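Supplementary Text 2. Reproducibility record for the structural model of the 406-residue chain.

All settings were left at their defaults, and a single model was retained for analysis rather than an ensemble. We include the record here because the model underlies the residue-level annotations in Supplementary Table 4.
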Amino acid sequence: MPDETIDTLVIGGGQAGLTMSHRLKQRGIAHLVLERQRIGERWRSERWDGLMFQFPNWSVRLPEFAFPHRDPDGFSPTSAIVDFIEAYAAFVAPPIRCGVAVTRLRGNDSGGFIAETADGRITARNVVVATGPYQRPLRPDILRDADIFQVHASGYKNPAQLPDGAVLVIGAGASGAQIAEELARAGRRVLLSVGQHSRLPRRYRGHDLIWWLAEMGIDQRPVEERGPSRLLPVISGAHGGQTVDFRRFAAEGITLLGRVSAYNDGVITIAPDLAENIGNGDAYYATFLAMVDDFIAARGLDCSPDPAARARLPDPVCLTTPLCELDLRSEGITAVIWATGYGLDLNWIDIPVLDANGAPRHRHGVSDVPGLYFLGLQWLSRMKSSFLSGVGDDAADLADHIAARG
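Retained model, structure tokens:
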């Protein structure tokens, strides 16, 4: 491909990049989308086989494009989400090139940008980085010397992938909780390291969590009102959608642990923070229920009481008498799954727009560098910015900003 020039370049061909293309086409702005692999690649290759989408079917949508389903309150497998994104791509018909990775993005003397790829350079007046928030799997090196099978949640596929024996899942966010439950249901002995988390109900007083977030306007909360917590809610769409309850996990045979803090000669040291972490998660949960109750009372909504939502199982022994050490050999642990989240990987951007942590400096997706934008990041402008159904609003705002540049 020879060097070329385009008005606006969109980097990333997932739902954010496709939605950006849709909004640019609506405004008649010439553009090109580059995707390093396939459309929606992370949905294809970085999800496990049994993953169910965490949002109910009725809430799944992209701009002017509805998600096909038979059960509005059900939850769909990853394959259905991939099909949906592919169908949306056919609907949008973006000018996209797949298998083209941008290896460097730099400014040029005319105030625009040059994107370097293996096929050549592309000059653009505007660039939208739509590569998503889940770019680099985070895996602490605590167990670097352990002779044991280890895999990040992004590389986990199913229980058969793991060697026989007990499994230690480190991280009890949405992925870690669902993977731990899947392994336990497959008959594996599971130990789950529970760190700080924000636990919320799947359903309460007749409605799904996502319905309450929208009804109360919480999903529209601007980033300026975001609190100090950076924890994502622990929710699940598995088994018809259930509230994640770690006491129930323990009752079903999963051993809860505190945070993994050190490792030496086959023995893991466990921090004495399990009770605190479970208690903080309970506090998030109780606070949300109270918020919903107050909202119902203020609006006079006809929603039946839900006392079962506040029922609490007894504290299990693993919580009241937590383990402080874990000998891998004596416990029969043969595999570790790191459900420790993701970080950004934007070092290919050779423009002074990243902070000391490698995160882009921007306001609602508009960077300090004229013509450079970001889309699809968590809390880009509001809580729902990284939701599948929320990226369209941010894309429209950025498309308007690009159009206003003339």
